[in-house]
Write a structure and sequence with these properties.
The complex is a heterodimer. By secondary structure, chain A is mainly α. In chain A, about 75% of the residues lie in helices and about 0% in strands. Chain A starts with a helix and ends with a helix. The two termini of chain B are about 35 Å apart. Classes of the chains: A mainly alpha, B mainly alpha.
Chain lengths: ~290, ~325
């Protein structure tokens, strides 16, 4: 008994000992190098002059530091416009998803009405519909609406999220109904209750859903490939892929383009890691 | 002391009211909101799904779709039996993709989550490193790895040569291209699975581990007999989500391979074939038939998940 207690104490203490965690770093650091190495190589290579990029044997650190690749890319392609397009489309999708999810989730959480559970099951069942099956008919539909190559064409098919509705219903069911009843007795309209009681009390879930939706829409590629036909309507992911298609042999340009897309994400993640990880852990279920 | 019956009843009634929430008092509000929601779903989800089924049974006429003649299952039989059909090849590639990506990701994410869980002060750094690739778009990652895989000037071949290994063609070699894409996808997707496993590990109540320790379980037994069984649902969840995700791979193929889907047809997946048939070859009917087949397979996996994910135990 005493020996067992001693062994347990040793195990518990062993966890805190420096020796243990240093041993784990021997496994962890090579993994971190594999995860971060490509980004480090990308950043260093983006500052090499084009001739150094194709030198044999290749250099790891640039021998001459230059912004030549970035300058060439910015001359060739309207990257500022791509950022603007991506920012506009992702912000609009995020705002609309937050609006629709919280309003529809509120109704499903706090109202009783005819056909409620059937409607909810119908909405949830759309989660198993792959984008691959709707993408071609959606393309013909958006084309018939005359929305090809427009911002509404990029935004409208993405502005309601079944997962968001599900998440907000789950969260809002936890808000005490007494607060709503009190507001009702005072004659508050339904939309006022939604805007002034439910939304302020749901900021945790809304911010997680917002982070997730923004990241998801920022990275969309397939739908923009279908909808966009002119260079100035491209979103950032489409812009980078087009750059690679049009200059297949220019790896210096590919690397500088990838850097322009990746560095902002790295900076934002470094500063908002806690929020983003929490948001993704809560909603990342969608995969 | 006996409970006061009337007080209990009142309490129950209050609780029932609390659950039911706002009563519809002649309220059209929920009907308007849900009606608008269903209208959106009808236009952007249900109509496209039905149209896809319809398209798969007709020979699509671009100029006048309504005049498309009904041809039964010909689109499907063409896909399966036409000698020039790329469907068997794309289906095989997708199967390889699904099996490899899922088979590697699930155990690797579990191992990484256990590892990250060991760190206290440096945990933030490791989460940053493992999670960063997941936040970057597949487009940017694909374009970056075009350069990293480049056989002469890239990052990997010089390392292989230093280690005394042979030079590889990677994306230029039709036999290696698909595996090169899968490797990048695994690298990029480690973050999500690891996070979900990490949340699962943190959810295991400390008392279970303490109880096992008091019974004399060593670290090895602790993992195999307590932690792993309690992570059963997390594992099933990660596996099914990874599987469904792998099945639909598109962005990486488009961004990384040159020409997209190549070299040759070596990286054609089902999603890519849909895109190719519809946009490049204007064969809407066969594209819709492939989509329908994918839909059925994904529905089967989702139903399996719903059936198996009913918790057998709760904690």
């Amino acid at each position: 008994m005493a020996a067992r207690a001693q062994r347990m104490a040793g195990q518990v203490a062993g966890r805190q000992l420096w020796g243990w965690s240093w041993a784990w770093h021997l496994v962890g650091l090579p993994i971190a190098a594999i995860m971060l190495g490509p980004f480090l190589w990308m950043l260093l290579s983006s500052f090499k002059p084009p001739m150094e990029m194709i030198r044999v044997p290749p250099t790891f650190f640039p021998q001459t530091w230059t912004l030549q690749s970035y300058q060439e890319i910015l001359q060739k392609l309207p990257f500022a416009r791509y950022y603007f397009n991506s920012l506009l489309v992702s912000s609009a999708i995020t705002a609309l998803v937050l609006f629709t999810s919280s309003l529809i989730g509120f109704v499903f959480a706090k109202y009783e009405f005819w056909g409620k559970e059937t409607c909810f099951t119908l909405i949830l069942s759309t989660l198993m519909i792959p984008f691959a099956i709707v993408v071609i008919p959606l393309y013909t539909l958006v084309s018939a609406m005359g929305l090809l190559n427009t911002y509404p064409g990029l935004i409208l098919p993405m502005c309601v999220s079944s997962f968001g509705i599900f998440l907000m219903r789950q969260f809002m069911e936890g808000v005490p109904s007494e607060m709503i009843d009190a507001a009702r007795i005072d004659g508050a309209p339904d939309l006022w209750i939604w805007a002034r009681i439910m939304v302020p009390l749901s900021t945790t879930a809304l911010s997680a859903l917002g982070v997730f939706t923004f990241l998801w829409s920022w990275n969309l590629l397939w739908w923009p490939v279908m909808v966009v036909s002119s260079s100035e309507m491209r979103t950032l992911p489409l812009g980078i892929v087009s750059l690679a298609w049009e200059n297949a042999q220019r790896f210096d340009l590919a690397i500088a383009g990838a850097s322009l897309a990746i560095v902002p994400v790295m900076v934002i993640f470094a500063f908002a890691q806690r929020t983003i990880v929490r948001g993704v852990a809560l909603t990342g279920m969608k995969g | 002391m006996l409970p006061n019956p009337s007080a209990t009843r009142a309490g129950t009634r209050a609780a029932a009211r609390g659950r039911a929430g706002v009563r519809p008092r002649g309220g059209w509000f929920p009907y308007i909101v849900v009606g608008l929601a269903l209208a959106w779903y009808a236009v952007f989800v249900f109509y496209p799904v039905l149209l896809a089924l319809w398209m798969s049974l007709h020979a699509w006429v671009v100029e006048n779709p309504r005049a498309s003649p009904f041809i039964g299952l010909k689109n499907y039989t063409d896909l399966l039996f036409e000698p020039t059909s790329r469907f068997p090849n794309a289906a095989r590639n997708t199967l390889v993709y699904v099996v490899l990506r899922t088979g590697v990701l699930v155990p690797l994410c579990l191992a990484l989550a256990l590892l990250v869980n060991q760190f206290k002060r440096s945990q933030r750094f490791y989460i940053f490193a493992i999670f960063l690739p997941s936040l970057v778009s597949a487009a940017a990652v694909g374009v970056l790895f075009r350069a990293i895989y480049q056989p002469t000037f890239g990052l990997i071949n010089p390392i292989l040569l230093t280690l005394g290994l042979p030079r590889m063609g990677f994306l230029n070699n039709p036999d290696q291209a698909l595996y090169s894409v899968i490797a990048v996808d695994i690298w990029q997707s480690l973050g999500f699975g690891t996070m979900i496993y990490l949340a699962g590990i943190l959810n295991i109540p400390e008392v279970f581990l303490e109880a096992a320790k008091i019974d004399g379980a060593n670290r090895w037994q602790l993992f195999w007999k307590v932690t792993l069984p309690l992570l059963g649902h997390t594992t099933l969840f990660v596996a099914v989500v990874t599987l469904i995700h792998s099945f639909q791979v598109f962005d990486l193929i488009l961004a990384m391979t040159n020409p997209p889907g190549g070299p040759g047809y070596s990286t054609y997946t089902l999603s890519f074939l849909i895109y190719n048939e519809a946009l490049q070859r204007s064969r809407m009917g066969t594209a819709a038939a492939i989509a329908t087949i994918m839909f059925i397979v994904i529905m089967i996996f989702t139903l399996i998940q719903i059936r198996w994910l009913r918790p057998k135990w709760e904690y």
